[in-house]
Amino acid sequence: MTSPAAADIATSDPLFAGLFDRTITSIPDSVKKQRYMTSVAPMSANPGRWVEQPRLPIPVGEHAVIECMGKIHLIAGYARHRVDGGFHQVYDPKAKSWSQKAAFPLPCNHVAGVAIGPKIYTFGGFVEQNRCPHSKCFTYDTASDAWQPIAGLARPRGAISAIVLEGKIHLLGGRDVRSVEWHEIYDPASDKYTILGGMRGSTGTQPFVGQRDHMGVAVVDGKIHAIAGRMDSYDFNTSLNAVYDPKTDAWAFRAPLPTARSGVSAVYIDGKIVVFGGEATGRVFGTNEAYDPKTDTWEALTPMPIPRHGLHGATAAVIGNMVHVPGGGPLPGGSVQGAYHDAFTFS
C-alpha cells in the first residue's frame, strides 16, 4: 500500500477519544482522582521539563512508537473506536508536521518494534483487546514506504519489549494467555531467531526476572535493563530493574524502580534511564524517575503534565535532546486514547 501525498493530515478527531463510547471526546473528570504524580525518590538537581508538541491527527493508544531516521513512527493500536488499528502516523520534527504512511499489514494492538538504519521491524501483537496474540512479523522500508513479512515468532504473543543490541533485536517477555519470561534474539541478516534460556535470575531464591509484559527496556554500556512491568495484569505490577549481560548470558538485579507500575516508557538519555508514565489498578501515572547506572540510584524528575500509558515498540522516541511521547491512554486500561503529544528534555 502506498502512502498519501506527504502533508499535514486534516483531522476532525478530538484530542481524546473513547474506545467504544463515542460520546467521550475529552479526558473524563473521574481521572483526577486516579492520577498519581509523585515519587519517593529524592528530587533531581535538574528535574527537566515537558514541552508540548503538535498533536497527532488520530488519537491512539497501545501502539508502537519508533524513531527511525530522525522521524517518529506510530504503528497500529487502539484508534477510532477499534482495537485493531492499522494506522501508520509519522511525525517530522524538523517540519513539525504529521503525515500518513503505508498502513500496517495486520491491524492489531500491542505491537513491538524497533528500527535499524532505514528499516523498522515489528513483532507480534494482539488482534483483540489485549488478547488473542499473533505470530506475524514485518519490516518497513522508509525509502519505499512498503511493508514486507519476515520470519514469524515461534511463540505468538503481544506486549513484547524489543530493543536493539549490537545489530540484533532482543525480544523480552510479553503475554500469550499469561505473562511469559521468554527471551529471544532476531537477526535481520539471517531472518532467524535464537531462543535463549528466558529471563531467569541467578539464584534459586531469585528465580524470575520476568514473567513480565508492559515493561520498559534500555541499553546502557552494552547491557539491557528491563524495568517495571507486570505479571498477567496491572493488579500485579513490579518495580524490578534487571540487567542482562550478553557476554555472560546472565541476568543480575539493580536498585528497583521507586514507583512500581506497568505500561511505562523508558529511554536512556544524558547518562540516565528515564522511566515515566504507566498504570495500575485505579491509577494512571505521571510519575517520572531517572536511574543513574553509575551510582545505582534513582531520583525524581518533573512529572508528565498529562499522565499516560500504552506506548509500545521502543515506547518513546529520542530526537536530539528531547524524548517524544505521542499519544497514549490517559486513564487506566484502554477506554480512552489520546492525540496529545509532548516531549521531555533535561535542557
Please report the number of helical segments. Answer: 0
Strand coverage percent? 35-45%
Number of strands: 35
Which CATH architecture is right? 6 Propeller
Shape descriptor reads: globular
- The chain-level structural class is mainly beta
CATH topology value = Neuraminidase
Largest sheet: 6 strands, mixed
Give the CATH H-level superfamily: Kelch-type beta propeller
Radius of gyration: 18 Å
Report the end-to-end length measured between terminal Cα atoms.
40 Å
**Whole-number tally of structural domains:** 1
CATH top level assignment: Mainly Beta
Chain-averaged pLDDT: 94
- Regarding quaternary structure, what we see is single chain
Low-confidence stretches are 1-8
Approximately how much helix is present in the residues? under 10%
Textual characterization of the structure:
The chain contains no helices and 35 strands. By secondary structure, it is an all-beta fold. The chain has a single domain (24-345), classed as 6 Propeller (Neuraminidase). The strands form ten sheets. Strands 4, 5, 6, 7, 8 and 31 form a six-stranded mixed sheet that branches. It is globular. The chain starts with 15 loop residues before the first strand and ends with a strand.
Produce the secondary structure layout:
Elements: E1 16-18, E2 35-36, E3 49-52, E4 60-61, E5 63-68, E6 71-79, E7 82-92, E8 97-100, E9 112-116, E10 119-123, E11 126-128, E12 131-133, E13 137-141, E14 146-150, E15 161-165, E16 168-172, E17 183-187, E18 192-195, E19 200-203, E20 206-208, E21 216-220, E22 223-227, E23 241-245, E24 250-253, E25 265-269, E26 272-276, E27 279-280, E28 283-285, E29 288-292, E30 297-300, E31 311-313, E32 317-319, E33 322-326, E34 336-338, E35 341-345
Parallel strand pairs: 2-28, 5-31
Antiparallel strand pairs: 1-34, 3-35, 4-6, 5-6, 6-7, 7-8, 9-10, 10-13, 11-12, 13-14, 15-16, 16-17, 17-18, 19-20, 21-22, 22-23, 23-24, 25-26, 26-29, 27-28, 29-30, 32-33, 33-35
